Fold each of these.
Amino acid sequence: MKKHWKTKFVSTLLLIAIFFVGCKKPDLNKMAGGTWNPNFAAPIGYADFDVRDILAFKNVHDIDTFDNLTGEMELIYRGEIASFTAQSLLQLNNYNQTVNLIPTNLGLVTTPSYNGSNSSSNTSPINFPMSGGSLLNTVNLESGNLDITVNTSLKHNINLTLTFPDILIGGAPAVKIIPLNYSGSIPQISNSTINLANSTCDFTANGTGTNTLRVIIDATVNGTGQSVVGNENFDISVNLNNLSFLNATGYFGQQTIANGSDSLLLKIFSNASSGIFSLKDPRIKFTVENSFGIPVQLNITNLKSINTVTNATVNLTNSNLSNITINTPTVMGNISTTNIPQLDSTNTTNMTTLVSQTPKYVNYTINAQTNPTGNVGLLNFIEKTSKLVVKAEIQLPLDGYAYDFKLNDTLPFKFNQNLDIIESVMLRLNATNGFPIDFKIWASFTDTNNIEQFPAILFNGTTGTDILVGAPVDNTGRVTQSVNKITDITLTHDQISKLKNVKKVIIHAEAATTNAPNTDVTIFDYYRLKLKLGIQTVLKQNF
C-alpha cells in the first residue's frame, strides 16, 4: 500500500470513502442498528504507519536513525548543490595563424626565367593564446582538426612537406605532404586537413616556449621557366578547429568560477503555509569532491533558510565557510574529498533558528578560485571528466517542538456516480497514535472557479478538531503510551448531491507536538500510527 504523511493519507481516505459509496453496495445487515464498530461494519481499510512511512515521503533515505542506542530519528536532506566541470576551467578555442614566406625564404632570387630546383626549410612558431593567464604544457586531444590552406602567386611547381614536431599522432609527428603544380593560373591554392583525434600536443615547443606549437616547412621549388619577380607571396594558414581534450597539464591561471545562488528543498515544509518549529540541534555538513589537479579555494556565502510564503529568512554566518582550501588529487584519475567542519549550535550562534519559520529552502551562493597563490611552479592537471562537486547534508534530529504547523494541498476531483438513494454517509476513523503529534484536518469542496459548493466540514467544523491526539511524553520527551481516538465524518444528502459540481478538494491540516511549546518531544524509530476506516450508509426511506 502506498503511504504518505499528513494531507496525503487523509485525502486518500476521503476519496476512497466517497467512491466506495458510489461503486460498491454495502452490507445493510451489518450496518443496521445504532452504534457500530468499524472492525465489523463495512471496513474500508487498515493502515499501520511507522516513522519512515510518515516522515520520509517518497524517499526512505530522507530519514534515518540518529542514535542507534536509543533509536532517536533525524530528517536528512542531501543534495549536490554545485558542480564545476572541466569545460568551465579550460576552453580550447578555435585559432588561426598564417605564416608568410617570401621567395628569398625559399632560396629563390629574382630572375626573368627560372628552370632550376631549390630546397629550403623554415621553422615557424604557432602561438596559441589562452585566456586567464593559462599556460599549456601538454594536451591529449579527443578530437579536433588541423586545417591547412596554402596560397601562393609563384608560377612554379612546389613540393611542400609540413611537419608538426609537437603534435604526435600514433607516437610520430604529424606530417602533411602538399603538391602544388603550376597550371598557368595564379594564385595556386590547396586545402587539406589533419585529423587530431587521439593526438598528443606539446605546447612548450619542446621546452622552448609556452602556449606554442611549431611547424617545419620543407619546400622544393621546381622551375617552370616562368619568372621570379621577388614579391610573390607564399602563405600557409594553420587553423586549429573544434578541439576537445581528454586531459591536459600546465598552469590554468587564477580563475573565479561561481554557480550563482541556488537552494536545497526541505521537503517536510514543502506544503506548509505557516508554523513554528524548534529543534535543539540542527546541523549542516558540506563535502567537496575534487578531481581537478588544481589548487582551489572555496567560499560558501549568503547561507540562509527561506520561507517563500512569509518571506521569513534566517541568515547563517560561520568562518568555516570562507577561504576553504580544497584537497587536490596528486594523480590524474583520482578524487580528493574535503569535509568542511559542520555547522551546529556550538559554532553558529543562531543555528537553532534554522527551521524556526518552517522554511521551504536553504539557500546559498558558492564561488571558487583556482590557484589562489598564483603560479608557484606547481603543475596543474585536468581531465575531460574532472569535476569539483559541492554536496550539502542538512540533518534535523527530531528533538524539539512544533505548533501552528499548517499545511494545504489541492487534489483534483471527479464524481459521476448516481447516489439518489443515499440519505447520508458516515465514515468512522479509529486512530491509535503512538506519535507525540496532535493533528487537525478539514476540507473544502470547490468548483473550477474555486467557489465552495458547501461549507468546509469534515472532522466537526471549519476550524478542525483533533483527528489524532498526540501521545503523552515523559520528562525526556519520549512517548509513554499510545492514544486511541474515534472520529466520525458525516456527509448529508445535500452535500452528496453537490459532489457532481466539485472539481477540487482542498485539504487543510494543522499539526502540533504534544503540549507545544512547553514540552520538547523526541521521535524514536519504534513509534507507530494505526488507522482503521469504516463506513455506514443511511438509505432514503422511499426509494
Note: The first strand starts at residue 43 and ends at 50.
Amino acid sequence: MTSRSGATSPPGVRNSLGGDAAGVVVQAGTITGDVWIAGPRPPEPAPVPHQLPAAPSHFTSRDDELAALDDVAGEDTGGRPALAVLVGPGGVGKTALAVTWGGRRAAGYPDGQLYADLRGFSPGTAVLPEEALGAFLRALGVAPERVPPDLAEQAALFRTMTAGKRLLVVLDNAFSAAQVRPLVPASAGCLVVVTSRLRLDGLGSEGARFLDVAPLSQPNAVELVVRAVGRSRVAGELAEVAELAALCGRLPIALRVASARLASRPRWPVARVVAELGDERSRLSRLASEGDAPVSAMFDWSYRALPPTAATLYRLLSEFPGATFGVDVAVAAAGLAEPATADGLQVLVDASLLEEVDELRFRFHDLVRLHAHAQGDDGRAEVLPRVATWFLHEMTRANMVVIPLRWRISPVCEQYRTAPPAFGSGREALDWLDGQLPNVLAVLEEAGEHGHDRLAWQLCEALWELFLHRKHFPRWLRSHEIGIAAAQRCQDPVAESRLRCQLGRAYLDLGRFEAAERECGRALELARAAGSRHNESVALDQLGTAAQGRGDVPAAVSFFTGSMAIEAELGIERGVAQRHRRIGDLLATVDRDGEAAEHLERARRMFAGLGDEKDEAKVLVGLARLDARGGDVASAKRRLERAHAVLAESGSVFYQADVLVGFADVAECENDPRAVRTHLVEALQLYEQVGGPQVERVRARLRRHDVEFAEPPAPENPEVPGDGGELAPHYSEITGAVPDDPPHGGDGKPGQLGE
C-alpha cells in the first residue's frame, strides 16, 4: 500500500489516511528512539486596537455635530481616508464629541480604533509625530524592535499596515498640520478625526472637512447640569440653573465642574453657587481675556473650596510632565503618605478637577493643568527631582530582576543587590518597565532641560534592560542623546562612556555599523582615559561585533580577544566564556572549523561549570553545526535536541528559532530539502515575532531553497539584494551580526552590558 507521501508500506502493514485528517500528520510503526517534530505554526492574528477613551457620562446633545461626522464618514473621498477637523476653544467639548461619536460608530471600523493625545496645548513638550506613530504601529502588532527609528520609514510602514483596512483614528489636541499628516492612514476605508483649538488650514490639501464646535446652546447647557445634578434636585430652580449655565459660558468643562460641586453639596441651593460665581467672575474679568473668565472663575472657585491635602496635590501634580499618573507617582510628587494621597486624588476627581482614566491612572484636562500650575509655587521645584528619583529606584528594582548581576554605574543599585525581588519574573519586570516608558521619557526630558543632570544620565542608564529586550529604537536613540549630554555636563567620562556603549548597541541592532563604531570608539577613548576597564571591555566587544557586521574577520577577532583579556583580568569568568563563543561563531562563518570548535568547546565547558544552561545550550547550536559539517550528523542532532530542551523553556522565541535554523543546517548536510524547508518556515514564524535582519535573511534563504528544489527546474536564480545570491549555510549569516539579543528574560554577571 502506498501512503499520501508516496512511501510504500511493508506487506501486511496498512498505511492510509481517511476521514477529515488535515495538516501535519505523523505515521509510524515501532519507535525505538527519541522523536522530535517541528511543523509550521499558524500565524498570530493581528491585534485589533480599541484605544478610544470612555465617553463622558453626561454627554448632552451635539446632534448637528454628530450628524456632520456621519456625513464625513459616508462621503466619497476618491480613494483617500476621510478627515474631519473639530475646531473650537478649550473646554468646549471637542474630545467628548470625538470619542462619543467614535464609540457609537465603532462597529463600522472593525479593524480597530486608534487614539493619541498630541498634547499640543498642554504645558511642556507636545507629542512628536514619530512618538505617536510608534505607538500606533505597536498597537497594530509591530514588535517594538521592528518600529523604524526614522519618521518617514514609520509613516511608510503605517501606510502599508493600514492599506485596505477600516480604522478610526482620533488625534486629540493637535497643534499643527505637520503633527497630523504622518498619522493619516492609507485606506479610503479609514476616518481620521482631529481636534484642535486652531484651524489647521494646512490639512485642507488633505481633503479635510472643518467642523466648528461652539459652546452648548442655552437649553442644552441647562440640560447638562440637570442630568448631572439630578432633575428632582433642581426642579424648582430652573431659572437659577439657566443663570449658572450662562455664568459658565455654556462650556461643558465649566458646567461639569459646577455640577460636581453642587452634587457633592446636596443641601446647597443653586442660587448660592450663582451668587458666589457672580462675585468671582467680577473679580477675574479684569484679569482674563474675553471668553476665558467663566472657565477661570469656575476653576478658581472650585480650587478655593478644596481641603488642604487635595489643594496641595492639585498644585504639585501639575508639575509632573507625564500625560497620566497613578497613586504611586502622586505620592512621590507630593511627598505625602499614600492613604492621604489616594483620598486627595478622589476629592479632585469628585470635583471634576482630575479625570480618572481607569482605576489606576489619572490625568488633567490641559486647561485644568494650566490653572493648577498658576496656583502658588510652594514646593514646586522639588517635584521633578522627587519623581525622577522615584522612577530611578523603581526601575532599578525591576532591572535587578531582568539582569540581576549586571555591572551598573549608578550607585542606586547597591541597595537592591540583596533585597527581595520586586517582580516574580523578568517578563513581569519588563512589562512594568514598558508601561512606565512614556512617563520615564517625559521625566528624562524635563530633568535634562532643568539641570538635573545626574538624575538624567542615571535614568538613561536604567533604560538599558528594557531597550535591550524590547528595543523601542526611536525612543532608545532620543533618550541617549539626552543622557549623554547630561553626563557631559556632569563631566563624568565613565557615565558618558557607558551611555555611548548603550547607544552603540542600538546602532548595532539596526545594522548601522559605522554609527556603532563611532559611538563605541568614543566610549573606548573615554574609558581608557578614565581607567574604566569594564567600559573598555564592553566597547571592544561591541567594536568586534561591528567589525563582524562589516565582514572584517581579523579586526573582529582582535577586538573580541582584547575584550576577553580584560574580562579575565577582572575575574569575570562568564565574560571570558562569552568572548570565546563570539570568536568561535565568527570563525565558523569563514570555515576555520578546527579553531572555531576549540573556542566553542572551551566556552561550553566554562558555561557548564558556571551552571549556565542557557548559554551552554546556545554554544551547543554552534558545535552541532560544526559536527554536521564534519560528517557526524548523529552528534549534531543530539546537541540540538539538548539545546532545544533548554531554550524552549527560556521564554525567548529568538533562541528557539536559532535552534530550528541549526536543525535546518544539519538537514542540509543530510541532503534533506523537505526538512530544511520545514525548519526554516517555523524559524521564520518565530523570528517575525521579534524582528531584526534575520527575518529577511531566512526569507531569502527560503526563496533560494524553493527555486533550487522546484519541479521542473526553475530558471537561473537572480541574486537577492544584500545576500550575494548564494546559499547561506552558516548561523551568523542567518541571524545577523549581533549574536546575543534575548527578547525576554535574561541574566548576567558584572561587566556584561548586553546580556
Note: Residues 426-449 form the longest helix (24 residues).
Amino acid sequence: MPPIDRREFLKMLGVTAATSGLIACGKADNGTAGTPEAPAAAASGADPLAGFYDLPMQGNARILHITDVHGQLNPVYFREPNVNLGVGDAFGRPPHVVGKGLLDYMGLTTDSPEAYAYTYLDFDNAARKYGMTGGFAHVKTLLDRLREQAGGRANTLTIDGGDLWQGSGTSLWTRGVDMVEASNILGLDVMVGHWEFTYREDEVLSNVALFKGDFIGQNVRVKEDSLFGDEYASMVEKFDGRGLYNEDSGHAFRPYVIKNVGGARICVVGQAFPRTANANPQEFFPDWSFGLREDDMIELVEEIRADEKPDAVVLLSHNGMDVDIKMAERVPGLNAVFGGHTHDGIPKPVEVKNVEGNTCYVTNAGSNGKYIGVMDFDIQDGGIKGMNYKMLPIISNMLPADGEMEAYISQMRQTVYDDKIVESRNSKFFYNPTRVGKTFEEILGEKLAIADRLLYRRGNFMGTWDQILCNALRHEYDADVAMSAGVRWGTTTLKGDWITMEDVMTQCAMTYGETYVSEMSGKNLMNILEAVADNLFDPDPYLQSGGDMVRIGGLDYTIEPSKPLYERLTDARLDNGHVIEADRMYKVAGWASVGKAPEGRLMWDVVRDYILATKGDDDVLVLPKINHPKLLGVADNPGIADYPGEVG
C-alpha cells in the first residue's frame, strides 16, 4: 500500500488557529489519553504559573531546548532510572548519579516537584500527587511564557535534539507528520535527527520540507555512489533540493545555521546520532552515511569562527551525554552542547574544559517532553560575558493547555485508520484490517488489563514493561528465551491503572516492529549479550551506543560491568534452573531486527494479544517474575540505588 500523503493528511485536518475552539478529547480512566483538564487554580483566576515557572531573562539571548520527545503529544508518566551506571571517567559524574544522590548533587530537596521530575523516588505516590508530565499543549504554554519573559521571540531560539518523530501510534501511522505539524505550532526553530531516519528517505525529506525550521546535521553525508546517481538526484529535486545541501562536501543537510538572537549572532552546529547505520536498518537510508566525524567537527567550528565571526557557537547533538562531554573536551570553540539520545534529565550543565582551557557547558534535556532546558547568554562585544541555566520540568497540572495545540492534537487523533496506513517495512503488515474504520483515538483508547505494579522501562537493566514485552514474545513463539532491545523510550503505567493500547504503542511503535524466532546456540546467545554489554560499559564513550542492556526474558545471569569483553557475564540459566550450555541449541524470540525484515507478527499486536490472553478474571495482569540480573562490583557506584535484584 502507498504511504499516507502528508499534504493530504494536513489538509484533511484543516488545522489553523481557528481550530482552537474545538473540544479536546476527554481524559481516559487511567489518564493516558486525551488532554488533562485545566488546574483548579486556573479556573479560579489564580495564576498556576506563579513562582515555579517564573524565569526572568538573565542576559540578552535565550536558548530553549527540548529533546527525545518520542512522539508523545499528550501528557504521560515517565519514571527516571534507579540504575544508570557510570564507568571510567563517567563514574559518579552526572548523569550517572541517581535518586537521593542526584538530588544532593544538584542541591534539590526530597518531597518536591523536582524530586518527582528528576528521580524514581517513591514514584507511584509522587505521580498521584503531582500528576502527569509533558504534553505539547503544556510545553507550548511554558515556551510562550519563557519567550515573553525574555522580551519576545526575537530574543529566543527554540531547538530540538532529535527523536521527535517516533515513539507513538500516531507518529507511526502518519510517518511522523503529526509531530512535524505539532513542532511547527510549537515554534521549533532548529532540530537534528536519529529515529527520524527510520522512515524512508522520501518520507524524511517530505517531513523536512513541511518543517518550518531548519533540519541540520554536519555528520550526515550522501554516499558517493548516490551523490552522482540519477535516482537520488530525482528524489532531491522532488523536495526542492532538500537532502543534498552541498554536492562538493556531500552534506545531505545544512551542517549549521546562524541565527540572530537578541541582537547576537549564534551559530548552531548539528550532530545526528553517529551510529544510526549500526543501530537501525540501513534499508531505510540507503543513500546516507553517518559517523562521529570529530575531525570534521573541529575543522568546521574553526572555519565558522574564522569566516562567520559569530558571538557564540553551540552544538545541537544527538550523541548521548557521555559522548558530548568527550567531544566538548576535544573540539575547541564550542560554548555549549545541547544534547539528546540518552534521555538524561540533568538540572545543571556539566562544565567541561576543552583542549584550549575554555569552558563548554554540556546539557541534556531528558525525554518525552518532560523538560525544557533554558540557557540565557549575556553576550557583549562579540563574546559571552555570562551564562545562566535552569531546566524546568513540565508538570502538566501546573500549566494550562495551549488552545491551538490542544485542538490540533484532538483533531489529529480523530483521523481514521485506513488502508493507506503503513505500519511495517514488511508488505505483509502494511496495515491491520481489524483497525480500518476506527479513529486513532478509538484504537489507542482500548483497555487491555490493569497493572499489578508500576510498569516502567528506563534503567540499565530489566524494567517491568520490558518483562511484559519479553513474556509476550515467549508466549507467541513458545520460546526458551526472549530478547528485547534496551531502548530508552517507552512511558510508565501506574499500579492499578488500565494498560491501554496507547501504552503498548509507546513501548513498541517503530517502522521495523516485526517479530521472529530462531534456534541459537548457547555460545552465540552469550556472545550477543557480551557484545551488547560492551556497547554499554566500554570506558571510552566514543565506543558506546548510548542505550541500555538488552532485555532478556526467561533467563537470569550475573554481570560485572567493569570486566572486559567476554568476561562480564557468568552463571546464565533459564527460569527452570537449566544452566546455559555452549553447544546446546535454544529457541530465542525477538523483534526489531536491523537485518532483513522477519515474517513474524508486529510486536504491538503480539503484546496486545498476550495481555488479553494472560490477564486474570479480575482484569489484572500479573507478572510472576522479573528477570533482574545479578550485578557485581557496583555496590559503591552512585549510579545504582534500590536495585530490586541482587548486588554484589
Note: Residues 49-407 form a domain with the Purple Acid Phosphatase; chain A, domain 2 fold (CATH 3.60.21.10).
